[in-house]
Amino acid sequence: MNLSPETLITTMNTWPPECLWLIMLATCFAAILLLNRLFGPPGLYVYISLAIIGANIQVLKAVQFSVYPEPVALGTILFSSAFLATDILAERYGPEYARRGVWLGFVSYLLFCMLMFLALGFAPLTAEQAGEGMAWALPYHHHMGALFIPQAALFAAGMIAYLTSQMHDIWLFDWLKGKTKGRFLWLRNNVSTCLSALIDNTVFSILAWMVFASDPLPFKTVLLTYILGTYWLRLIVAALDTPFFYIARRWEYGGREYDRESLGSSEHSNS
Question: What is the pTM of this model?
Fold first, then answer.
């Protein structure tokens, strides 16, 4: 039985995209639970950074779902799942930890882009230089360029939208926690995530396709196609992550205890 990556990918290409969508969603949520259980806040920091980097690569691929008339860019699941990670940080460890995770995600993606940009700065091999032994490397310079040369407008719009929506999510989640006296976790999770996801879609779409675009699109097109077009996916992710949030609260980190006081004392000792 051939289990090569190429064969597995070819097989998965025949599956309904909704099936792969659910598998990816379950994988993301399970990874968040496991990383939180094994490593606490550092594990969630790692996930947030990977999710932001991965989402900005996956968004280059569009998929046709049977339940939606227009092709949809990937990346929604990875990016949306980061809201679950920051909400867990805010709920279990405090909003200071959640904000730190957001900034680490931002810095990770920025540094990743800088390093890949520098890598692309090296002149690619010529056929003569490569010879037979390195001939395999000849096409990869252009492949890497297609993935990692960011469009300035999309990069700026994405990072502004990311910081705005994630910081709003943390603030609203913590505000609702105070108003509900720590009750109604499902309400806090869904309200903060759904509103913050709408902010993310709105800020990114207006900046990318109107403010920074060389040929701005009409607002009606931006609203219907880009802001609301994929928002239904964000709502589904927000609804489905709620059971995992309850599992995360019960299945807590098994190592050293983290709390707001330990963060404050740590920062005080470093100052």
Answer: 0.87
